[in-house]
Amino acid sequence: MLSDLKIAFRQLLKSPGFTLTAIATLALGIGANAIVFSVLNALVLRPVNVPNAQNLYSVQRFQWPSQSYLDYIDLRDRNRTFEGMIATEIIGAVGVDTGGKPSTAWPYLTSGNYFDVLGIQPYLGRFFHASDDKGLNSAPYVVLSYAYWNGRFQGDRGVVGRQVDINKHPFTIIGVAPHSFRGTELFFAPALWIPLVEEPTIQGSNDLQYRGNHSPWLVGRLKPGVTPVQATADLNAIGAWLSKTYPSDDEGIKFSLARPGLVGDFLGGPARAFMAGMMLLAGLILLAACANLGSLFAARAADRAKEVAMRLALGSRRRVILRQLLTEAVVVSIAGGIIGLIGGVVILHGLSTWQPIPDVPINVPVNPDIRTYGVALLLALASGLFFGIVPVGQVMRADPWQVIRTGTVGAHGSKRFALRDLLLVAQIAICAVLVTSSLVAVRGLVRSLHSNFGFEPKNAILAETDLHMGGYADDAVPQMQRRMIDQAKSIPGVTAAGMISQVPLGLGGGDSYVYADTTTDYRPTNYIADAMDYNISPGYLTAAGTRLLEGRDVTFNDDKKSPTVALVNRKFAVKVFGSVDKAIGGHFKFWGGNRAEVVGVVEDGRYRTLTEDQQPAMFFPLQQHHSSDIFLVVRSNRDPAEIAHGLERSIHGLDSSLPLSIRTWTEQMDTALFAARVATVALGVLGLLGAMLAVTGVFGMASYAVSKRLRELGIRVALGASQREILRTSLGRAFRLLAIGSIAGVALGVMGTRVLSYIVYQATPKDPLVLGGVTLTMLLLGMLASWIPARRALAVDPLILLRDE
User: Fold this and answer.
1) CB-based contacts of 802, cutoff 8 Å, min separation 6
2) In contact, 712 and 732? CB cutoff 8 Å
3) Hey, is 455 helix, strand or coil?
4) Is the backbone of residue 229 left (phi > 0), alpha (psi -120 to 50) or beta?
5) Is 592 exposed, middle or buried (0-12, 13-18, 19+ CB in 10 A)?
6) DSSP assignment of 580-606, as one string?
7) Which residue among 163, 494, 607, 619 is least crowded, i.e. fewest CB within 10 A of its CB?
8) 175: which strand partners?
């Protein structure tokens, strides 16, 4: 073995260009697979980091994990198949005052039995328990995450028992969670855990007593021996009782189970499908890399044919030569695997600390574990054997006397397709698919940045705050909001200012059932529309750049003393009233019987995702529907940085303790564009890898063709063949394979990229620019890859070649 390794290293060092190309090619393939597998492992294969996580399941209502708190109580107390069931809720940031400068932090609100059911032990102090839950506002306790404790309190072990103010209300720190515990959702890393019964204190409103409010997410731990099917049947039996007992809120309710960690099947389903597709593409890239290396090793074997034949003629055993050839391949594969894995680990560590949405603790730890290293090792060994076998057959089947006499390992000019030809066609097709997909995604992303969202983010600034953090409640909330709007308008350069409860395409925004004005039975089955609902102030439409199509805007006179009014979008007007004209002055009911008059119709927009079907939407006056958590929208004709600084100074001039987060609306759009950007970057990287492999694939094929027919080319030159004939003879086969693979890849890419339309807004696979760009890209790749073999073919000197022969 040591002797084989010495020979392998010596042979590889004699051809540094070949060796570096082979190692780099395999490093790209194995590195891509290691990265994709590690992400797949973190999101799909690896369970939530709690004891006995295999028994945990999210409880879904109509395929959505959120339930009402009252339904949670009934499910928790009436089921027979769960050891325990917990409720969690992710709310917005809260204001935390530890006696110094106030700051914001993102908490989990959880049921009292949360830590007991999950089986988590505290790092410091204790956790709250079900016994601490004695009703609303009965458990003013807070548990800190390890990261928040270490950063905010500098690891002070005396923090237990200390009092902090959360949204101006006192809470007692009772413990610190262990370092590795992040909760039950993989993507969210909370700073605090607070009992759910404290929601009225934290939020300033009590939604826990409304069975129609579905906010908490439920997770249950199955009893030993209970199957998910049995648990689902048990839950649906309770659901039938809920439907009969509370028909106005729970009629027809159905439950299902899903793995926790990605909001049940809401994110889990798309994430699993996307990662399966990415794993398939990464596997195809590795296959293409192996095909490339097979071609390179075949060309190298053709160059070494006389050497091998001479060794065989002198009595060397074939299995010894076979072992040495495979040793060379395995050395290359191990080196490529190590380099690819090192690069993958660096990228994965960066992804694990990446926070895609500013000021929101969303990230996914995808650091590699033993599975990733094992997969990389297996792929390296399998790849080495795979591409190492390709040239072995042609050498081991060769007749030594014929090779010595003719200088080749087989017949010349074979017209049939060999296995490596088919692999090259497949690899070029893969490259074309990836290039097509990446260009479609990029073009769609560019279009989405210049699309009509129903608002204009350019030149607009958002200031997010929650007045409840500052201790404002009841009538003090709208008074402070009006003062903030007036202060914003007084800033030089500001042209409009207004407020909205949640910005469209942000993380928030809820929907409500809409009923006809004549409806008296408000069961869920009787609604006529499911509309997005927002609360806005006067001036918001102008500040947001939203066009008013008919009617009037809301005013400050639309308060709680006046009849309820609303603005609706065009989709709402057409769906509920039949047309925009009929909507003005019309009435509808919402939230179980409240009645509103439509006073204006605004243009349609995008509210949850860029790729959604057009949704109905309604906008209520903030004066009639108080909301302490708001976005102040400011439009200006000056530099955003100057306006942001002046806005912060003006708002803090009203209340210096009020937490405030200021960013441009364009930056806020990062949330909506996150999925599209991830898909675009991922496909772009794979497209780049495919393009690089296409270059090496065509290069290997062309090099092999030239090496195999070098003596023939010398004779043709000696007989007077022109340079054009030499190129056609030596490289014609490689260009034919390039054309076949490119055509197949573009066709598959046009069909496959239809899936992108669900992720990337306005992704159009039949874009002429995309098709032209792919065609030009493949042509340039072919020219680049065949440049060196073409030079070698044209530089053939028949006198030297024939004298050598």
Assistant:
1) 711, 714, 715, 718
2) no
3) coil
4) alpha
5) middle
6) HHHHTT-EEEETTTEEEEEEEEE----
7) 163
8) 125, 143
CB-based burial label for 518 (10 Å; 0-12, 13-18, 19+): exposed
Per-residue confidence band for 134, with pLDDT thresholds at 50, 70 and 90: confident
Residues whose CB falls within 8 Å of the CB of residue 597, separated by 6 or more in sequence, listed in order: 563, 564, 565, 566, 585, 586, 587
- Measured distance CA(743)–CA(789) in Å, rounded: 23
pLDDT level of residue 415 (50, 70, 90 thresholds): very low
d(CA 189, CA 362): 6
Q: Give the residues across from 95 on adjacent strands.
A: 104
Token representation of residue 433: 């698919």
How far is it, in rounded angstroms, from Cα 173 to Cα 193? 10
Strand pairing of 255-258 and 217-222? unpaired
Task: Please provide residue 599's backbone torsions phi and psi, each rounded to the nearest 5 degrees.
Answer: -110, -10
Helix, strand and coil in the chain, % to nearest 5: 55, 15, 30
Q: Is the separation of the CB atoms in 657 and 480 below 8 Å?
A: no
H and E: helices and strands count for the chain:
26, 23
Could you tell me which residues are beta bridge partners of residue 142? 173
Confidence of residue 551 (pLDDT cuts 50, 70, 90): very high
Q: Please give the Cα distance from 496 to 493 (Å, whole number).
A: 9
Write the pLDDT tens digit of every residue in 443-472. 766 766 666 788 998 889 999 888 877 778
DSSP letters, 301-356, are HHHTHHHHHHHHHTT--HHHHHHHHHHHHHHHHHHHHHHHHHHHHHHHHHHHH--S
pLDDT in tens, 340-392: 999 989 888 888 887 777 677 887 788 888 888 998 889 888 888 877 776 66
Mapped to the 3 state alphabet, what secondary structure does 735-795 carry?
Answer: HHHHHHHHHHHHHHHHHHHHHHHHCCCCCCCCCHHHHHHHHHHHHHHHHHHCHHHHHHHHC
The first and second tokens of residue 609, run together, are 């995702």
- Which among 338, 322, 325, 320 is positioned nearest to 293, based on CA atoms? 325
- DSSP annotation of 58 reads E
- Chain center to CA of 675: 5
The set of residues, in sequence order, having a beta carbon less than 8 Å from that of 452 and lying 6+ positions away, is: 605
Torsion of CA 167, 172, 175, 180, to 10 degrees: 0
| Crossing angle of the two packed helices 670-708 and 419-449, in degrees rounded to 10 | 150
The identity of residue 512, as a single letter, is S
Polymer length of the chain: 805
Structure tokens at 534: 């927002």
Stated as kind and residue range, the H or E segment containing 57 is strand 56-61
- More confidently predicted of 178 and 410: 178
Integer CA distances (angstroms), 472 to 169, 376, 480, 540, 629, in order: 12, 56, 8, 22, 11
| Distance between CA atoms of residues 151 and 171, nearest Å | 19
Instruction: Judge if pTM exceeds 0.70.
Output: yes
